[in-house]
Amino acid sequence: MSECTHDCSTCGESCGERTQPQSFLKEHNPAARVGKVYGVVSGKGGVGKSMVTSQLAVLARRAGRAVGVLDADITGPSIPKAFGVHERAVGDERGMLPALTSTGIQLMSVNLMLDDETDPVLWRGPVIGGVVTQFWTDVIWDVDYLFVDMPPGTGDVALSVFQSLPLDGIIIVASPQELVSMVVEKAVKMAEMMDIPIVGVVENMSYLLCPDCGREIPLFGQGKTQAAAEAHGLRLLARMPIDPNLAQLTDQGRIEDFQGQWLAPVVEKIL
Predict the structure, then answer these.
(1) Up-side HSE of residue 236: CA atoms within 13 Å toward CB?
(2) What's the rounded Cα separation, in Å, for the pair 222 and 199?
């Protein structure tokens, strides 16, 4: 170990002389411009986190902001398909260039680096965490808002994002099932441990809208997300229904054509 300067803010060593917490935050690419950074998280998979991330990006773009999506769900990347982006990522001497969607949303995902986007990513945790960090440090973002589509749960990659990226806040996505209180609590506790602000909670798959009478049909029972959010002093910012049209447009890579406004309160809160 080199001679101690007693300036803990510039030191990466963990020694007995340390008087300040060690920061793992990484600087973005010198050629990049990044405004606010928001993570979209869930305590479990299958709740529509990537769908929420995509819709937040679409609505922020419609509001006239420069927007990017960092797909940190390395083993289950779905962001490029939702936006109909399939070309390989490219770069220059400055770094990697994000792909652009039809409306100008910037994307970076491991699927843009594979020879075949259906190939599985059989990497261990530290490698995956390193790739996510590189999406921050090596990509030349030029955005006002960057949304990070986090992997589900509270594992290695989520920890890497929380430690490495200067998150301005997280949005927690949940579904109406009974397990929601535990799912929300896990995400809240991790955010609190990492000192990350929580913007609020979004409930996905809240109901199905009857096409004949317009009645809300709660397929999974009455949602318990609001009670779970309020138990932690959080706001339920939006309830998203099951919408076959949204699912179809996503499968077709045309999510930017969807006109739903359910997430408008979330976008209004962060813009």
Answers:
(1) 20
(2) 23
pLDDT in tens, 36-83: 999 999 877 778 899 999 999 999 999 999 999 999 988 778 899 999
Closest by CA position to 104, among listed 53, 144, 148: 144
Cβ atoms of 176 and 220 closer than 8 Å = yes
**Percent of the chain surpassing pLDDT 70:** 87
User: How would you list the strands of the sheet with 106-108, edge to edge?
Assistant: 99-100, 106-108, 67-71, 142-149, 33-41, 169-174, 198-203, 236-239
* Coil vs helix vs strand at 209: strand
Burial of 212 (0-12, 13-18, 19+ CB in 10 A): exposed
* Dist CA 142 CA 97 (whole Å): 10
Please list the alpha-helical segments (H only) found in the chain: 49-62, 79-83, 125-137, 156-164, 180-193, 225-230, 244-251, 264-270
Q: What is the CATH number of domain 26-270?
A: 3.40.50.300
Q: Categorize the per-residue pLDDT at 20 as very low, low, confident or very high, splitting at 50, 70 and 90.
A: low
Could you give the CA distance from residue 122 to residue 117 in angstroms, rounded to a whole number? 13
